[in-house]
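Section 5: illustrative case.
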């Protein structure tokens, strides 16, 4: 059953998603690996033989992962808890560096791009939920910032 609490969480999450997707894409890789202005959706993302092990662990969470996302495409990562979905997404977003393999946006390896450049190129939506402790009116104003108290009632 869909409860009011779930509806409230979903509405707030949707507002945040709309905000993220409404942001203009300003990043473009240039020959020296720096970032300039253009539409990043025109670049494919290629992951080749990616291996990643967390510090203090002997077993890689990712081993030999290879995938391609065509320009303008999207990817859904689905799997069991601990399978490496969030780790793979973080590495594609330039958060952390793999022990082996590469992540490329267009023809540029993220290993050759600084963190600021990677952040300009990639957005990541995590699976964590956020609980708001304020009044319901604050949550509703996420979708309608200028709404009066009367309109919220």
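Designed sequence:
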């Amino acid at each position: 059953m869909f409860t009011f609490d779930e509806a409230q969480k979903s509405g707030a999450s949707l507002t945040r998603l709309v905000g993220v997707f409404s942001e203009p894409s300003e990043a473009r890789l240039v020959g020296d690996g720096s970032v300039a202005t253009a539409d990043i959706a025109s670049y494919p993302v290629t992951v080749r033989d990616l291996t990643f092990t967390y510090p203090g662990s002997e077993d890689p969470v990712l081993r030999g992962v290879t995938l391609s996302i065509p320009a303008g495409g999207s990817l859904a990562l689905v799997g069991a808890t601990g399978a490496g979905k969030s780790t793979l997404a973080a590495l594609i977003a330039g958060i952390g560096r793999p022990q082996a393999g590469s992540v490329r946006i267009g023809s540029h390896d993220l290993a050759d791009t600084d963190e600021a450049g990677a952040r300009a190129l990639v957005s990541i939506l995590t699976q964590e939920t956020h609980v708001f402790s304020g009044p319901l009116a604050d949550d509703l104003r996420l979708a309608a910032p200028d709404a009066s108290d009367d309109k919220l009632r």
